[in-house]
Design a protein that fits this description.
The chain is mostly beta strands. The protein is built from 1 helix and 10 strands; from the N terminus they run αββββββββββ. Residues about 15-35 have low confidence and may be disordered.
């Protein structure tokens, strides 16, 4: 039987706190920031794998039909995220009222940014091609995008 370490319990507690924090935001009333909301974006989109250091990672976007979004990143034992509002125009997502959120819930505001995005499909199904929030404050074009898969409630 595997012994549960304090470090593993700490990681689980941090992840649970972040999950509760972001989930509470999903039910908060927000106003649409203007512009269009692409209904195809609505939902949970996820990309996961292992990085060059053999650490598991998961990036998750939640796009809500009210124009708000949340983003989680979990790389090895490091967690964090971002939230704010979005609108779309001409194949670009305009993110506004951005906050970077660290593992203990501290929020750092960031300037608006723009990411190109596109939808596609391959042998694994539909995907959203977009960048992940590894460096806030820098617009991103589609050339640095990665495939996020839509995840449905189970």
């Amino acid at each position: 039987m595997k012994k549960i370490t304090l470090t593993a319990m700490t990681r689980a507690a941090i992840f649970l706190i972040l999950f509760i924090f972001f989930a509470a935001g999903a039910f908060a009333e927000t106003t649409q920031p203007g512009g269009d909301i692409d209904s195809k974006l609505a939902g949970r989109w996820q990309h996961s794998g292992k990085n060059a250091n053999n650490q598991n990672f998961v990036y998750t976007y939640f796009f809500f039909e009210n124009g708000s979004f949340e983003y989680f990143r979990n790389i090895g034992s490091a967690s964090g995220g971002a939230d704010g509002k979005y609108r779309v125009s001409n194949g670009k997502i305009h993110f506004s009222e951005l906050n970077d959120i660290n593992a203990i819930g501290e929020r750092t505001p960031y300037d608006d940014i723009v990411f190109e995005y596109d939808f596609g499909s391959d042998d694994m199904g539909e995907y959203l091609l977009i960048c992940h929030f590894n460096y806030l404050g820098k617009d991103r074009d589609i050339s640095s995008g990665i495939k996020f898969r839509k995840r449905h409630k189970s």
